[in-house]
Write a structure and sequence with these properties.
The chain has 167 residues and is mostly beta strands. The chain has one helix spanning 7-26, and strands at 33-39, 46-52, 55-64, 69-77, 83-89, 98-107, 110-119, 128-129, 135-137, 141-144, 155-161. The strands form two sheets. A six-stranded antiparallel sheet has the order 1-4-5-11-7-8, covered by helices on one side. It comes from Spheniscus mendiculus (Galapagos penguin).
Length: 167
Amino acid sequence: MAASSGRSGRRLWAALVPAALLCLAARAAEEPSTADFDVRPGGEVHSFSRSLGDYTCTFTYSAQGGTNEQWQMNIGVSEDNLFFSCSVWRPQGKSYLFFTQFKAEVKGAKIEYAMAYSQAAAGGQSDIPLKQEEFEITETTVSHREGKFRFELSKLMIVAKTPHDEL
């Protein structure tokens, strides 16, 4: 599934999803998990992964320029176990690294909504979403689109629907 199309739809999602993710984290059946990690330049491919119960989120990237930047990954499962959320971002807002590729992958759930941002909200600044043509969304991944991605990334957000048994 893709993010909502159209500028007004994107603004609506941009306003609603952070609130929904906060609710997911606050009402999590298992304690949400936040982990710090360094995004390292140098052109090599690196991955960072976290799991919560049956669900896993993995962020894979390659970046150039600058020095290590501290980033965070937050994962959570809703109280009703219907949604798994994964957010990856630079808490300081804008990354100064030049990303040559990125991919966030979820295991154990299918992506319902995802969005990528060139700048994360910080210091009174708002999130700035990537243009839709810069990234692609599949059932389990959000990744850069070769030849369209403009090398700026500061935040990824994913909400995935978990499989559940009907009674």
